[in-house]
Design goal:
Layout lengths: L2 E2 L11 E5 L7 E5 H7 L25 H5 L2 H10 L6 H12 L3 H4 E2 L17 E2 H7 L20 E4 L3 H4 L4 H33 L7 H13 L1 H8 L13
Antiparallel strand pairs: 1-3, 2-3, 4-6, 5-6
Helix pairs in contact: 3-4
Amino acid sequence: MPNCTAHAGCTSSSAQYCASVANWGATGTCRTCSECAAWADAIDGVCPTACGSATTPTGVGASSPADFYNAFGYWSRVKTEGSSVIGTACLNTATEAMRTTSSYKKGRNSGCAPVFTKADTANRWCDVEQLTIRFPFQQCIASASNNYCGIAGKSVCIADKYYDCCPLQKDVVAGVAIAVGVALCIIQWAIYRSCYTKKLIKRIGTWSDPAIVAAAQKAALKHPKLSMRIRGSVPAPAPALEQP
């Protein structure tokens, strides 16, 4: 195998990486990607993303997301060794995966429901492509070509509740709440208006205030079917009041 100082120096094959060799210092040697996935000995500590298409998960049940969510030893290593090199989301995922043995039931890779929720990518959703180039899972570096090491998703979230992974979008919820409130006010006003109109027509012969009498006559003419149902006939318009 030729010597190298960076992954780009291994040009003989796209399925190679530059492996660190302890006695050579800054100089390494080009090796096959499967070795980087097995030993995680890249010269810069990160397997090249090109190795993803050259590796596949190994072992019994390697294609099951349950193995990934419940791999306590794997997540322990991520938590212990990755605090300074991987993002907050993957560290939080490692913490959750180590905290409970039922994490498979709480692991998600299908994203969040649209409109009302959004993925908390900064704190919860771990990018498995980026995670596995530093910490290969079951000798696999995640990529689309290997179905993300059998996980079937580019990013995952492990948490107690759905809304831990997918918090509500407060602005959308507030907008819906305001719209519902306005709609209820309109409905309430319509009910009040309907009751007021019915009362005007029903007691049309008992009002003494000229203004109310005029309003009752107007309501009866505007709603003839309602007036017929309440009183059996449509009363004639009230006579015009004489001007002094």
